[in-house]
Design goal:
This protein has 325 residues and is mostly helical. The chain contains 16 helices and no strands. The protein folds into two domains: 2-90, no CATH class; 109-318, MetI-like fold (Orthogonal Bundle).
Length: 325
């Protein structure tokens, strides 16, 4: 098991290097530091002196990958790539193109993101699995049929519809909760209730239908027929055997999502005015702050790889037949 985890970490390191290099090349080959300076200065006629000053203040006046003007290791370390991308591997995020401390912003904005994503994730998981088990229990009945129809209809509706509709009904029409904003402590509940509710409802269609497919596949297997032949009730078979044996495909989609909860929801946070990492990324893209975007892409890759490793480890906990060497 230890050797397997070590191999996965090595593979993940190579993936991170590839993502880092590709992201850096994508940003700096499409947008040169001069283009970035002109976009940030925000004036039509930017003088060469102003561009040079902006690049020097932010460290973009160096060579991208190899500095021929230096000697020894400084040929590599005194470059834009090392200063802006290589240091991400030790989680030195540096400053944004607007001069803000990215590490501080992430440490403060991750909590509002978790405040929205974590309750929506836990409540949603319980709702999706329960609804899917209900449809599987009453399979081939009207309840199952209309449940699938409801799932397909909810899958076909854009997430923006749930957000805008929820804001109109619960916020403007009924005045139950604020439409947007955020606060700390217990006062945050009134701002988080609607985003969490919409997050759960918008995922019912795809998630419940997927879990239903998993449960129906397990129900058709031989061990279920054997359990029924021994006289076990349908409820016991479904909740004791089917649910347990369906945990591996469920964990594949669940555990890998857990680390990404820190990244927040881009659209939800933007529409509800929540100062999380999702809105942080959207603001960086709109302001063309490529330093923040590079950091968020790298951080998302790290969390995704951690999620994959946690998924593999969790397999051994729910199924003793799975062993890694």
């Amino acid at each position: 098991m230890t050797a397997y985890i070590f191999r996965r970490l090595i593979y993940g390191l190579f993936v991170l290097v590839g993502v880092n290099v590709f992201t850096f090349a994508l940003f700096f080959f499409v947008n040169t530091p001069d283009d970035m300076a002109r976009a940030q200065l925000g004036v039509k006629r930017v003088t060469p002196e102003a561009v040079a000053k902006w690049k020097h203040e932010r460290g973009y006046d160096k060579q991208l990958f190899l500095n021929e003007n230096m000697s020894g290791v400084e040929k590599v370390t005194n470059t834009v790539f090392f200063e802006k991308s290589a240091r991400l591997f030790v989680f030195e995020f540096g400053a944004s193109d607007q001069g803000r401390n990215i590490g501080y912003d992430i440490s403060t904005r991750m909590w509002p993101s978790l405040a929205v994503q974590l309750p929506a994730f836990i409540i949603g998981l319980l709702v999706y699995i329960s609804f899917a088990l209900l449809m599987a229990f009453f399979r081939a009945t009207y309840l199952d049929f209309w449940g699938v129809v409801l799932c397909v209809l909810m899958m076909s509706i854009s997430g923006l519809f749930y957000i805008i509709g929820g804001q109109f009904i619960f916020g403007k029409l009924w005045n139950l909760v604020p439409i947007s904003g955020y606060d700390t402590g217990f006062d945050a509940i009134k701002f988080l209730a609607l985003p969490v509710l919409i997050g759960v409802i918008s995922g019912i269609g795809s998630s419940a239908r997927w879990y239903r497919t998993i449960f129906l596949e397990e129900i058709s297997k031989d061990y279920v027929r054997t359990a029924r032949a021994k006289g076990l009730s349908e409820t016991r078979v479904l909740f004791r055997h089917v649910l347990q044996n369906a945990m591996i495909p469920i964990l594949t989609g669940v555990v890998v999502v857990i680390p990404l909860l820190f990244m927040g929801a881009l659209i939800t946070e933007s529409f509800f005015g929540i100062p999380g990492l999702g809105s942080y990324t959207i603001d960086a893209i709109s302001q063309q702050d490529f330093a923040i975007v590079r950091v968020m892409v790298f951080l998302g890759s790290v969390l995704y790889i951690i999620g994959l490793i946690l998924t593999d480890i969790s397999y051994t906990l729910v199924d003793p037949r799975v062993r890694f060497s």
